[in-house]
Amino acid sequence: MNSHFFSKLCGSLLLCGSLWATTLMAKQVNLSGLDDVAVQDHGRKKPFYVFAVEHLRSISGKESWKDANGETWPAENVVVDVWLRPEIWEDRPLVLVDNVVLKEELKLPKEQKYFSYRALTANSQLDSVLREVARLQVLKEKLSAAQEGARQLSTRLELFKDLANGTAFNFVPDPHEAEGKWLPLTLKLPHYSEQQVASLLASFQQFLKNYDANDEAGVAGSSLAFKQQLRSLAPSLYPSEDILKLENFYTKLDPFSWAWKAYLVSAIVLMLTTQLWRQAGYRFGVALALAGFAFQCAGFVMRVVISDRAPVTNMYETVIWLGFGAMLFALIFELVYRSRYFLLGATPVAFVSLLLAETQNQILDSSIHPLVPVLRSNFWLSTHVLTITSSYAAFALALGIGHIVLGKMLFKCPVPPALYQYLYRALQVGVLLIGTGTILGGVWANYSWGRFWDWDPKETWALITFLCYLVILHGRIAGWWGGVGLAAGSVICFLSVLMAWYGVNFVLGTGLHSYGFGTGGFIYVLGFVMLELIFVGWSLASYLRGQSARQA
Amino acid sequence: MSERGQSEKLKRERCARSAEWRWIYRLGSLRLAMLLLFTVAIACAVATVCESKFNRQVAEVYIYKNPFFMLWLLFLCLNLICSALTRWPWERKHLGFVITHGGIITMLVGAVIGHFFGFEASVNLEKGAPPVSKLIVNETMLMVQGFRSGEFYQAPLTMNVRRPTPRKPRVMPVPESDLKLQILDYSEYLATRTVLRPDENGVPGVTLTLNSAQMKQSLPVSLLMSPQESATFDMFGLAQVRLVPSLTIKIAPSKVPLLLLAPNKDGGLDYKLLHEGRPAVSGEVAADEGFSTGWLDWIVRVQAVYPKAHFAQEVVAVENPAPQQQTVAGIQARLADANGGAGTPEWIAAGTSRLLQIGQKVIQVGFGLRQIPIPFGVTLDNFSVPRDEGTDQPANFISELTFNDANGEAKQARAEMNHPASFPGGWWRLMTGLNYKFSQAGWDPANLNQTTLQVLYDPGWLFKWIGSLLICSGIVLMFYFRPQRTTEKI
């Protein structure tokens, strides 16, 4: 049976482990040969490279790790090494603890960010906090900040443990079922003959030997052999080489990162050339914006192909979609009006949203996960959710233009009247989309939850947002305010968008849209709200002072 | 003359002509619309915060389902109608405006119809169980028997808002009598537990609690001298507590620590702890006293010692239930008469009823969720939960159902996520909402033979549909036809 080979493998792993333990700092071997090996992880099959990056990012918040000697370890090397030499890695400060309240409760040094697995699992305080968390979760009660931090930390520790004991590495396919459970090498492999298992393990041992010997060429060769062996076990059910390569390409290219860089430069160029080199600057700015937009489109197309669904299923994706939508509307309007103000409003918004998505990876998780059952409907995802998030994008564009108007007032620059019309256009698009999107949400809810409208917090806040924008549009019809009011309103009303979008999921945390709930970032969002209010107040005051001075 | 000037002139003429027009202009004013929109937005925002800080019911009672809020929405509806009338005679440029406002009115009409003639309920189905033709609505009800006729009277009773307390009970009259029903308390966690009741024909018994601060546990224990199995309490197979007639009797050797208790002449207990067959601790303890056992930090506290007693089941409120403990919600109630006398308070668990007594008078009182009968039966043939590959995460929930109508005809249907099952069938019923829609709503991971479905019956559906289409197309038209007034006021 397999068990004989299994124990032999474990023996060899242990032997290797102890060998490595003596040579503490092995030179890092290039493991890119393993990139396209498929692993079943968290409910889907993904390439090993992505598996490694996601694991390291979840555990340590980064995509590579720097050791005490200042040497940088790529994610694949960290993940493989944790498996093969757990006893060393258990003592290395790899696990991120960023929750300050939790650190206080666990009596950990506040200034330290990374801790070793051993230190954390030995912390008896953590153990008792986690027991309390388990109790509260059964009773479905809310967790405090420290408890929420402990819950996240325990997931990181679990991930580390699964790497260290090898159970995370589900390499071996199920030859009978497309959705069957894949197994790690460390378990008995019931689907295969003794001979098949022996040859698979032999090829992996060859890899180990080469890895141990730091034999670059050997590692590349044996990785290839190992990969081919795995594929040959279930050739019809193994993910296609193309899709695995595409996901690796998407992860390595990081198109959204290129997009924000292009948007940033575009925004700077457009801003600096309002007086000098107007024509050339405008053309260059538009070209850069288009380049960024192309990167973003490419990113979305790849993500859609990989995940097989509309790219608006979690906070990370909607944050990116906001930037995308704002740019899309701005580019369309630029095509009509050729005014530069649409792009000036949209590029900073898109830049900030993409930058947030990239840097706040503990709050906005970029990994592709299987969806909760209720979201598994591409029809509704691409109608209701796309419409709603696109309305947020139109409002974000209005926010950007509103900032330009208010900024000009603050610095007592004349405001071109056309700007107010642009603002009105952006608001129109937003109001139409949020109205339609909210109603589509009702129709979907009628289908999946069995009711059209039930004052769920997400529904209610969509309605509030809709009403807020209606108030500023109607106020203008009544002649209570004009363009200045629209500008101030588009900034203030965006706060209701923030509440509907972020607040319901991260602050209120109740209701049926619970699949989108998360934690973190509250202080930053609150800071943003405060700054916006001060900004609006200040520029309005400056405008009114100017008015009364003119009248006098 | 400008467009605005013309409409001002028309307004003056009409208002001078009749009081009806004056009211239409007043009710349809933009100023009122703004006030209504603004207050509705604020009220909704407050409600969502209430829901997050307190619970769903608070938000519903004070805002969403409050008659004043409903009235406010109707007022908004009236405002929309009047403002559309002020534009009369409608021209091409009013098309978007009229369609949008008409859409909102249609939708609100649909909501009102749905509210009064439809319902949202749920049903629990178990594989192999007989057809179910009763649905459960998530509204708690009180059922009280009429004193003379014995018939049951029902009234809604929300508990999460203005929760009754023994100091501030909720009082209501008992039908057909001068008695009052006092609801003294409410608890989410009622548990049934075994207690001792004094009984002349009974045997000696004792109630005690075993407490551990480290394990954060407190175990209630009731022991009776006979039958033999009720004299011993087993603590997770790690230790035993046993009630014996006297400490001197011979005990078979036990592998686990054994605590022996024997009633003594002073009305207290003698105790002896046997560890590996040898006495470790011994002593004497009275009711309301405690002693340390020496196993971890477990402390025994004696509640009461009964010379003669029997077992009884009692419903009690638990303060901090253990995660695996089975509990239900319930109310504590008692009867009171006009002279200020009061009966014994009893806990009534949800879905049950109890006899409450005062003097010679007995009234049956029940508490539970409201039920709605439906004109057909539904059975669960199969329930399956496909998972994400290699994990336990559900990927879908699929209930295969059979509907049996009054004529005995059976129809198979399938309710899964995003695809509800509807009965009775037919496209016009689907369009008008005159059918029952069964959507997947809940499941029990520990029991895959059972599923919970949400059932919707919404005769206002057609209005909601049409209203939705009108609103969206109206907004498009409005933006298309409305001329820009960019420079009018800045």
Q: Explain this structure to me?
A:
The complex is a heterodimer of chains A (552) and B (490). Chain A is mainly alpha-helical and 552 residues long. Chain A is built from 20 helices and 6 strands. In chain A, the strands form 3 sheets. Chain A has a two-stranded antiparallel ribbon. Chain B has 3 domains: 3-117 and 463-481, no CATH class; 119-134 and 372-459, no CATH class; 191-317, no CATH class. Chain B has 8 helices and 22 strands. Chain B is elongated. At the A-B interface, α7, α17, α18 and α19 of A face α3, α4, β21, β22 and α8 of B.
Strand content of chain A: under 5%
What's the gyration radius of chain A in Å?
27 Å
Number of strands of chain A: 6
Strand arrangement, major sheet of chain A = 1-2
Mean model confidence by pLDDT of chain B: 87
Count of DSSP H/I helices of chain A: 20
Main pleated sheet of chain B: 7 strands, antiparallel
The largest sheet of chain A, given as strand count, sense and whether it forms a barrel, is: 2 strands, antiparallel
The total tally of domains of chain A equals: 2
Q: How many beta-strand elements of chain B? A: 22
Structural class by sheet pairing and helices of chain B: alpha+beta
Global outline of chain A: elongated
Number of domains of chain B: 3
Mean pLDDT reading of chain A? 89
What pair of chains forms the biggest interface?
A-B, 72 and 65 residues
What oligomeric state do these chains adopt? heterodimer
Low-pLDDT segments of chain B: 484-490
- Alpha carbon gap, first and last residue of chain B: 22 Å
Structural class of chain A: mainly alpha
Uncertain runs of chain A are 1-8, 14-25
Number of helices of chain B: 8
